[in-house]
Amino acid sequence: MNTLIKAVITLLTLSFTTLYASDGHSHSSHNTGIKSKSIQKIAKGEVQRLILEKKIAKSWNSMPITKIGKTHQSYIDDWIVVFENSEIKKKSRRTLYVFISKVGNVTGVNYTGK
Description:
The chain has two helices and four strands. It is α+β, with helices and mostly antiparallel strands.
């Protein structure tokens, strides 16, 4: 009888552990966030906004995205979208980096990528 009780308790414990660890149990840190298409749209929108505010040249509007990746700075996994513009004379200003959080907010734009 003791063996049967121990077996039932073990079975219930294992079942509960399996259910708790299934895909239904998630943490926000495992959330992959927004999709690549949305990232592109947000980045292009930010470039257009900067053009309208006359912070960058109009030629940036026709420049394609050359790279999309993830940054890993200070425990934050943001997206980084890179635009290249060969029409810009100053070499240090030819690459524009747009940083986007995993929930879709623009967190920064610069020419250094940092």
